[in-house]
Amino acid sequence: MAQLRRKFLKSLAAPIVSGLHAQQTLKIFVLWDMEGTSGIFTREQAWYWETGVRELVAREARRILTSNVNALSAVAVERGVTELIVCDTHHGGDNLIREQLSTDSRVRYEYRSVGMEKGKRRLMPGLDCDTAGLMLPGHHAKAFTERAFLPHTNSIEWADFQINGQSVGEIGVEACYAGHWDVPLIYVEGDEAACYEARRMFPGVVTMAVKQAETAELATGMDQDSAYREIARKVAEAIEKARTRQLRPYKPALPMTVTVRMRTMDGAARAAKRPGVRRLDEHTVEAQVGRQCDVVKWLTGAGLDMD
To answer: Could you read off the pLDDT of 253-285 as tens digits, one per residue?
Structure first.
């Protein structure tokens, strides 16, 4: 079965990349989340570490995520990507089943969203100015989005996150971080609400809706083979946009004013103790940052040049 699926995925990537494209260096950074992954339809699957989740469900959810990663990676390298960095960001990372991952030398794995680079800890290691595009598969809509599956923004504690007055979700936050290196967002995959959010904020971005929410904790969507077929088509489109530089990076005016409304007063009080953070009211904190890569560092400590 696994061999048949590999042949199936390879056939989706036809026609074969031209000799000219094959010779070009093309680096893509893929930041994987899980809520928007094809085949994940319940809270129990997506948040499998929660108390009471059945071990069988958790194991199968991780297998589904790993299969999705392999499917997208196979298409990307067939379409001419010479360096594909796959970074697992869901719940901090370490969700992939390592022994089931592709061993293609063009694919490099970062198993946690914070890793080491040049002897220092940083968020999304490997993302740099040589990267042609950022892909965000498995993603979800921002907190309190209606008709969305497990909507939230980075932390359940964050009710709203704004950059220079514009409300954004994780998609916007991560695109902002990548914009520090002038890397454009080229692809978003998730439920219909997440894809709509991405298209509104980033015109021209390629999106792939693999599911739709029935409730905030339950979704329905495509079977795996149908999803992989459509994903292959969309990934190919996104990579071509990266290759031909059709999309621009997200570049908010600097210094950026970043404002976060917390769900609780205690959350705002804790955040206000961090250096440079102002408390605007009982639930809201704010800071100014001079670099896009510091978009969340002022609040979480995660970013570039971490201690």
So the answer is: 999 999 999 999 999 999 999 999 999 999 999
Q: Which residue's entry shows tokens 């329905």?
A: 220
**Residue 139 is part of which domain span?**
17-144+169-250
Give a yes or no: residue 261 inside a domain: no
Residues 6+ apart with CB under 8 A from 211: 36, 38, 40, 41, 149, 190, 191, 192, 219, 220, 221, 222
The dihedrals phi and psi of 160, each to the nearest 5 degrees, come to -155, 140
- Structural domain tally of the chain? 1
Question: How far is the C-alpha of 132 from the C-alpha of 182, rounded, in Å?
Answer: 9
Q: H or E element: which one contains 74?
A: helix 55-78
Q: How far apart are CA 184 and CA 40, in angstroms?
A: 27
Query: Is the pTM above the cut of 0.85?
Result: yes
Q: What is the CATH number of the domain that holds 211?
A: 3.40.50.10780
Q: Specify if 156 maps to a domain.
A: no
Residues with Cβ within 8 Å of 3's Cβ and at least 6 positions away in sequence, in order, are none
